[in-house]
Amino acid sequence: MTADQAPIRVAIVGSGGIAAVHADNVARMGGAARIVAAVDIDADRLKAFADRWDIPRTYTRLDDLLQDTDCDIVHLCSPPGVHCEQAVAVLERGWSVLAEKPPALSLQEFDRIAEAEARSPGSFATISQHRFGARAVALREMFARDAFGPLHLALCNTLWFRPDEYFAVPWRGTWESEGGGPTMGHGIHQMDLLLSLVGPWESVRATAARKARPTATEDFSTAVVTLAGGATAVVVNSLLSPRETSYLRFDFARATVELEHLYGYSDDSWRFTPAPDAGEEITALWESIPPGPGSGHSAQFAAAFAALRDGGTPPVASADARQTLELIAAIYASAFTGAEIARGEITEGSPFYSTMGGGRVPWLTPEGDPR
């Protein structure tokens, strides 16, 4: 940002925990952006949030924000069940949107957002903060040029723990508000990073079950994903795992690269193991990566705001985010039908296009789930 460039004007919708993460990271950007307004239906919580982050304008309705102020980008930190409606309204106003994951509850909702984006001077991007850590950026470039040989196998595990009390919040654990369980709301972070590194997926076979938690959604899923490059990725998503970890592993012909963390990683979270016959140059290549920032919102915010100043589209753009959301829909479709699901198969004619559960969740009665 140069001295003659005005800060990017940010509005935040929602004032909960993730909104505080957004506000904190904007505040750390040295004047490149400033929060001009915030929205929340809870007036008391909104006031405390605005006081904490010195936000001049507050609204309890998004429509009032859209009519009463000027803005460059709106950060959606609201529950996922309202992302679609809010994103469309902001885009129709002509502003850009940066939405927390999941960006929408279904492919149908996401495509509605994309249609609004196509009509708008604004753009739509999804928070995918794990893509922006220095080691992930370097590995993405190395994979693209086949630096470690072909990829054979990848593992992608989100093994987290959420007790029954976690689901006392009314909108948690429901298909209507969250769109799914750990496959949708938790594992999306690691699956998105996986796909950003290894490229498109082709097909998936999956299982999903509700084993222990008082939810209408699954609390556990597994998937075997065939990647477009021919490799196989095995994915596990769980809320039943007392030793929590987020783990990715890439077995290339000449090296294994691993990432283990929980909610965010640093350079120290990565491990590199050369194949016995790989030669010292492979290790030297990995060790040549300079130290850099870990995952986090600030790196994505910096890229998004720079794109807005240059008239471009902030990352992660609609096409990238949709690929991840389509994989999640395919995991549910495979789990609940027993079939292998190909990329591109879930279209408007599929019950899994309008809802992740597809009306096929085996443990739900026609009247819903009496938890």
List the helices and strands and how they pair.
Elements: E1 8-13, H1 17-27, E2 33-39, H2 43-53, E3 57-59, H3 62-68, E4 73-76, H4 83-93, E5 96-99, H5 107-119, E6 124-126, H6 134-144, E7 151-161, H7 175-178, H8 182-185, H9 188-198, E8 201-209, E9 220-227, E10 232-238, E11 240-252, E12 255-261, E13 270-274, H10 280-287, H11 297-309, H12 318-337, E14 341-342, H13 351-354
Parallel strand pairs: 1-2, 1-4, 2-3, 4-5, 5-6, 7-10
Antiparallel strand pairs: 7-11, 8-9, 8-14, 9-10, 11-12, 12-13
Helix pairs in contact: 4-5, 6-9, 9-12
Quick overview of this protein structure:
With 371 residues, the protein is of the alpha/beta class. The protein has helices spanning 17-27, 43-53, 62-68, 83-93, 107-119, 134-144, 175-178, 182-185, 188-198, 280-287, 297-309, 318-337, 351-354; strands at residues 8-13, 33-39, 57-59, 73-76, 96-99, 124-126, 151-161, 201-209, 220-227, 232-238, 240-252, 255-261, 270-274, 341-342.
The order of strands across the largest sheet is 13-12-11-7-10-9-8-14
* Helix share bin: 25-40%
Low-pLDDT segments: none
Query: What is the third-level CATH name, the topology of the largest domain?
Result: Dihydrodipicolinate Reductase, domain 2
The average pLDDT score comes to: 96
Distance between the termini: 52 Å
CATH class of the largest domain: Alpha Beta
The DSSP helix count reads: 13
Report the portion of residues in β strands.
15-25%
Q: Characterize the largest beta sheet: strand count, sense, and whether it forms a barrel.
A: 8 strands, mixed
Pfam family, one: GFO_IDH_MocA
GO molecular function: nucleotide binding
